[in-house]
Write a structure and sequence with these properties.
about 160 residues, alpha/beta, Rossmann fold, five-stranded parallel sheet, about 45% helix, globular, binds coenzyme A
């Protein structure tokens, strides 16, 4: 069974991520959406919330599993028996960082390859930060996230407003 891992912070998962995920899911028997528990990023959603949201968003992809991981990505891949790390490339600006990460991961785990899929043109500009920024400014970015993600964003926003009161 060929297994691959699509890793990221997914804070939250967007339609851009889902496009990569769906396409990669056709290339492997099993695809693990690996959510980095802590990634030096100040996240909007907690790790468990990110997992819950992602599980709902990928519900229609039968060979996709959602898991939380800590520590080195390649160690997680080894533990899961994965042969590849999937990454999405949006623009040239993604390339430098991706190239560095892929080379370092290859150095540490030569048996695992990084595979890059080009993001669909309609999602070139999409990022989790854009989704959060628009949400925080009162504009629901419903056209670039799944309905379950849009609902989770509004819920979180309401909970935060309640905390501030
Ligand atoms: N569609 C939409 N957005 C996309 C995208 C796509 N196809 N591809 C990337 N993005 C966005 C993400 O939403 C994210 O946006 P944000 O910065 O606004 O949050 C941004 O691009 C970067 O995302 P990603 O490339 O997935 O990086 P990440 O920071 O979320 O996750 C890890 C990177 C978790 C894979 C990496 O840090 C890691 O492997 N960590 C584990 C520790 C480790 O092994 N480190 C050594 C690596 S050399």
């Amino acid at each position: 069974m060929k297994i691959a891992v699509y890793a990221g912070t997914f804070d939250p998962i967007t339609l851009g991520h889902l496009d990569i995920l769906a396409r990669a899911s056709h290339l492997f028997d099993k695809l693990i959406l690996a959510i980095a528990e802590d990634n030096y990023k100040d996240t909007f959603f907690t790790p468990d919330e990110r997992v819950d949201i992602a599980k709902k968003a990928v519900a229609e992809l039968p060979n996709v599993e959602v898991k939380l991981f800590k520590g080195l990505l390649v160690e997680f891949c080894r533990a899961e028996g994965a042969v590849a790390i999937i990454r999405g490339l949006r623009a040239l600006s993604d390339f430098d960082n991706e190239f560095q990460m892929a080379l370092m991961n290859k150095k540490v785990a030569p048996e695992i390859d990084s595979l890059f899929l080009m993001t669909a043109p309609e999602y070139q500009f999409v990022s989790s930060s854009i989704v959060k920024n628009f949400t925080l400014l009162g504009y629901a970015p419903d056209s670039i996230v799944s309905p379950c993600v849009a609902a989770a964003l509004q819920e979180k926003l309401a909970a935060r407003a309640q905390e501030i009161k």
